[in-house]
Write a structure and sequence with these properties.
Length: about 240
C-alpha cells in the first residue's frame, strides 16, 4: 500500500492523535476515513455503499431533486413525506442519515472483477461450442459430469462478490452480450444461483483455458483453430474444476 507523507504542526499532530484515541482508531485509520470522505466513499460493507460525507453542491443537487419529486407526487402524501425527509437530512447535513439516500446503490464491482466475469463467460462460450462439435461417441466418452462442468453454472448468491457477479452476468445477457448463457439463468437453474461457491473453480478452469490458448497461439499464430477445442482440451479444463 503506497504511503503519503504530510507535515503538520505539533498542535495539529496532538489534536489528531487525541481524536484517533477517542474514536478507538489509529491515526492512519482516522485519516483514511477522512480521505474516503473527500473522495465520496464510505466504509466498505457487505451492503450498500454510503458516503461518509457529501459536498455542498452534491447535497444541494440531491435536495433539489427530492423537492422536484415531492412536487410531482403531490397526490401521494406518503411519497411527499418521504422526499421531504430526504430533503431535511441533506440540507441539515445529517451524515448518518445518508444511508437512506443510497440504499439502492450497490458497492462497485471493480474493473478487474468485471473483466474476470467476461473472461469466464468467454471460456464457457468456447467450451459450450466445442461440446456441440464433438461426435456422439466423444460426448458420451466425456461423461455427463464433465459436460456439465463445461457449461456455465452460475454464481453463489450467498457470497457477496459472487452475487454481484451474477447480477453483472444478468445485466450483460439482458443487453444481448453472451446471450447464449440466458438459458442457464432461467428458473430451471434457479436464476443462475449455484447455491455453492463457484469462483475458485472457475478461476482454476480459466487458468488452464488460457494456457491452452497461449500454447495454441505460440504454435499456430493467429489461426482460428486457437479457439477450437478437442475432447482432450475439454477434459483438461474440466479436470481443473
Amino acid at each position: 500500500m503506497p504511503t503519503i507523507t504530510i507535515r503538520v504542526s505539533d498542535d495539529v499532530r496532538d489534536d489528531i492523535e487525541d481524536l484517533a484515541t477517542a474514536r478507538g482508531m489509529t491515526v492512519s485509520e482516522l485519516l483514511r476515513t477522512q480521505i474516503d470522505a473527500l473522495r465520496g466513499r464510505g466504509e466498505e460493507t457487505d451492503g450498500p455503499t454510503t458516503p461518509l460525507a457529501l459536498g455542498d453542491v452534491q447535497r444541494l443537487i440531491l435536495s433539489q431533486q427530492h423537492e422536484i419529486l415531492a412536487a410531482l407526487r403531490a397526490d401521494d402524501p406518503g411519497d411527499v413525506e418521504y422526499h421531504q425527509k430526504r430533503m431535511a437530512a441533506l440540507q441539515g447535513g445529517y451524515t448518518l442519515e445518508y444511508s437512506d439516500e443510497f440504499a439502492s446503490i450497490s458497492p462497485e464491482l471493480s474493473r478487474e472483477d468485471c473483466r474476470l466475469v467476461m473472461d469466464i463467460l468467454d471460456m464457457f462460450r468456447l467450451t459450450s461450442h466445442a461440446l456441440t462439435q464433438l461426435s456422439d461417441d466423444e460426448r458420451v466418452a466425456l461423461g455427463e459430469d464433465v459436460r456439465e462442468t463445461l457449461e456455465f453454472n452460475g454464481f453463489d448468491l450467498n457470497d457477496t462478490l459472487e452475487g454481484h457477479m451474477l447480477e453483472y452476468v444478468r445485466y450483460l445477457v439482458s443487453n444481448r452480450r453472451w446471450a447464449e448463457v440466458e438459458p442457464r439463468l432461467s428458473d430451471m437453474y434457479d436464476g443462475g444461483n449455484s447455491h455453492c461457491p463457484m469462483l475458485p473453480m472457475y478461476k482454476r478452469m480459466l487458468t488452464v483455458h488460457q494456457q491452452i490458448r497461449a500454447q495454441r497461439r505460440a504454435d499456430r499464430g493467429a489461426s482460428r483453430s486457437v479457439y477450437e477445442y478437442d475432447a482432450d482440451d475439454l477434459r483438461a479444463i474440466a479436470a481443473a474444476g
